[in-house]
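Researcher: Next sequence.
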Amino acid sequence: MFGKSLRPFGDMNSAAVLITVYLIAGYMKKYDIKLSKFISWCIFIGGLILELISIMVLRNHGDKMIHFTYGIIPMVSAFGLFNIGISMKSFYNKFINYIASSVLAAYLITEDPFIRMWLWNDFLHVSKLQNYNYFFFLLYGIVISILLVIVCCLIDKIYEQIEKMIGAK
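Model: Next structure:
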């Protein structure tokens, strides 16, 4: 896991990226570091801009864009987004909580080793679309992500109902 990839930006099997995230979060917790919303938004947007620039610059150098979904640059964006999330006031919304209760199931369904490659490569053909217009690819990614969450949440809710019916007998 540590030496499998020599890509400087990491990949999905990089333990070094996971350890780095853990160390950053531990450091922030230990020293009670809290960033302002403005700084968090700057980190988040700056990370997104860096990622888009790196994709555009390196897209013609034989590396696939998928490699930029893991590693240092996306971690900067995730760090900013995480800080934005923890600085928000908590709230309750029945519909959002209903959907949120199935989001883990949606993640587990889409990242299952038996489903992931089929879903992204054979069914959605994401690897073939990554060299299209970036606006189209971004829009496609957003629409597909929303539809996948909705479909997988529906699968989870149907499963819950089946489980209740079986348990009631």
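Model: The longest helix spans residues 134-168. The chain has two domains: 1-90, 91-169.
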